[in-house]
Design brief:
About 40% of the residues lie in helices and about 20% in strands. It is α/β, with parallel strands linked by helices and about 325 residues long.
């Protein structure tokens, strides 16, 4: 669906399903690029609810929906043009607009540290320049990616393994001697069941949502990189808000980052327990093997970013890495 057609859909939704807003109350249209019934998509609802609870009479967010309302990879352009006011999405969904957006996934510092050391401000500057967007909040720090397999590894050696990779992880698997396969998430279960692939890369969260625990034997530790999802707002729309309305949005963003930090700590433990109960065993790499995995992930990530954003990558690495 083209963005201009989506605008008509959103307008119809606003007329058909929303009560008239007060004249002095700002009504903001929001969309999430992640399905609302998944572990990652449902978290955004907490931000929307907080704004609507604390912003009564001042500002309200109307959540239009998720991928069923707008194709995920069109959300960035829709936000840039003002078709939607607020969007919830990871950087790789709009990196054509902001090539350095995926750098956040390489961060070794949490969001509180980035707000203090200038890293957050740099990321926000790049978003303002690249897609006319304000970064309200970032979350996901501490939810790492893992390698899940159907058979055990011999150290950090993936020779003979065919791994389904998420975008950006091809180089990691190849550096460890494995071969990569790219397929839609909906095809992973069947590919594992039939032996077409021997494993996949995925965050700690979400494996059970997809039912993959039934065809997964091992989760490899340590995890690497971090999930990084942004709550972004069209900059022009943000500037049109009153000072009080902006304050509500900004305070809600800080609340959301604190809320998700606590949520992640609790849910990470829950996800590990659920995976163990489902029969997924932990395969922990140690010493040089762990270093090899982490180094491959780190260097492949920054090399890929330097190829896409050569001017920005060195500065971002100083701010985001340790």
């Amino acid at each position: 669906m083209r963005v201009k057609n989506i605008a008509a859909v959103l307008t119809a939704a606003a007329l058909g399903f929303a009560a008239p807003a007060k004249a002095d109350e700002a009504s903001l249209k929001a969309v999430t690029a992640l399905a609302s019934n998944t572990a990652f998509g449902e978290v955004f609802g907490a931000f929307v609810d907080h704004v609507n609870r604390t912003g009564k009479g001042q500002v309200q967010i109307r959540l239009i929906g998720g991928p069923e309302a707008m194709p995920p990879f069109e959300v960035g352009s829709a936000l840039q043009s003002g078709v939607v006011d607020i969007a919830h999405l990871p950087g790789n969904y709009y990196e054509k607009l902001v090539p350095a957006a995926t750098a956040v996934g390489l961060a070794e510092r949490n969001v509180a540290e980035l707000r203090k050391n200038g890293g957050y401000a740099e990321i926000e500057r790049l978003h303002e320049q690249g897609m006319n967007t304000k970064v309200l909040a970032m979350w996901g720090f501490g939810i790492q990616f893992h390698l899940y397999t159907t058979k055990p590894l011999s150290g950090a050696d993936l020779s003979g393994f065919k791994i389904r990779v998420a975008p950006g992880f091809q180089e990691v698997v190849r550096a460890l001697g494995g071969s990569t396969v790219q397929t839609a998430p909906g095809e992973v279960y069947t590919a594992l069941e039939r032996g077409v692939i021997d494993g996949y890369t995925w965050p700690l969260w979400g494996v059970l949502d997809l039912g993959w625990q039934r065809v997964t034997k091992f989760r490899v530790e340590p995890g690497w990189r971090t999930v990084a999802i942004g709550v972004l707002m069209n900059l022009d729309r943000y500037k049109r808000l009153t000072a009080d309305q902006r304050r509500i949005i900004d305070e809600s963003a800080l609340w959301f980052e604190d809320y998700t930090t606590k949520l992640i700590e609790r849910k990470n433990a829950e996800e590990r327990e659920k995976q163990a109960k489902a029969g997924i065993k932990t395969l922990e790499l140690k010493g040089l093997d762990a270093d090899k995995l982490l180094s491959a992930s780190r260097e492949a990530g920054w090399e890929a970013l330097a190829a896409k954003a050569p001017k920005e990558a060195p500065r971002l690495r100083k701010l985001l890495a340790r």
